[in-house]
Design brief:
Number of strands: 2
Order of helices and strands: HHHHHHHHHEE
Radius of gyration: 20 Å
Length: 291
């Protein structure tokens, strides 16, 4: 079985947990939905922690985002990645249009509309940045074979700013909402997405804790939480443009985090194995970094 197939099979249980949690929110009646959702999410979280952390401990951290997002020599996989990236760009472009339409229908104008216009612009820039990272990782024609570091730094910085700004706006939109359950999943999903990109941005900066297990942990958390957040948004009553723009944003988080986890799992072996330490009783451990 190829490495990419193995990586997808490792990722599949996370996807199953995410779909199960979303299905509970959408289809189970309110009297038991809270308890069942909590149980499923806890199971998913336990799986995410142990599967993402355990198998990645023995590998060295990557030195470049090109190593993380490369599809190797498989041209079909490279084309598929770029196609997904372009689809994400179209999704976020549609999201930006919906945000502007939402402002027009709710007649929000002046300074109150500025953060939402920024949100629409950042969403599009984030999608374009993700496509650039995928393209540079797989179709670099530089003499050294490595894409320019400044490109990766700029793109990962934009994605980090986009996620953090969105996190602030989610709280801002729901500051007077007494029903915390309606927006708590949105905050958790965007927070996980933010931390994932902070770690990825750390790779471009040569940070000490360039941890594979941390990136994969928060990528999988983003997958699960984005699915749940999308289900909650879909179920709740809100303006149609608002609902669709939020669904587009969480679709972007879900797909980009899925790609990150699968490619990180596929490419982990190419980063090299950490130096092994042998204890007196012949048990071996890996000299790794903290999560």
């Amino acid at each position: 079985m190829s490495g990419k197939n193995k990586s997808f099979l490792k990722f599949a249980p996370t996807l199953v947990f995410a779909i199960a949690a979303a299905a509970i929110i959408l289809f189970v009646n309110n009297s038991v939905s809270g308890l069942l959702t909590l149980i499923v999410v806890l199971i998913a979280a336990v799986y995410v922690v142990f599967s993402a952390v355990g198998e990645s401990s023995r590998y060295n951290p990557p030195d470049s985002l090109a190593g993380v997002f490369s599809a190797g020599s498989n041209k079909a996989a490279k084309i598929a990645l770029i196609s997904v990236g372009l689809a994400l760009t179209l999704i976020t472009l549609y999201s930006g249009i919906l945000i502007i339409l939402d402002l027009r229908t709710t007649q929000i104008s002046g300074t109150k509309s500025i953060p939402d216009f920024i949100r629409a612009g950042l969403a599009l820039l984030a999608a374009i940045s993700f496509v650039i990272i995928l393209a540079q990782s797989n179709f670099s024609d530089s003499e050294s074979g490595e894409p320019p570091l400044s490109t990766f730094r700029a793109c990962s910085f934009i994605l980090t700013i986009y996620s953090c700004f969105n996190l602030i706006l989610i709280y801002r939109r729901n500051a007077t909402n007494p029903n915390i359950a309606e927006f708590a999943w949105q905050i958790l999903a965007m927070a996980a997405f933010s931390v994932m990109w902070m770690y990825l941005m750390g790779i471009t900066a040569g940070a000490q804790y360039r941890s594979i297990k941390a990136i994969r942990f928060f990528a999988r958390m983003t997958v699960v939480l984005s699915m749940i957040a999308g289900a909650v948004v879909f179920r709740n009553e809100m303006a149609v443009y608002t609902k669709m723009s939020l669904l587009c944003e969480f679709a972007f988080c879900f797909l980009s985090a899925s790609i990150t986890d699968i490619l990180m799992s596929t490419n982990a072996g190419s980063f090299g194995t950490k130096k092994r330490l042998f204890l007196p009783d012949d048990d071996e451990i890996y000299d790794g970094t903290k999560l």
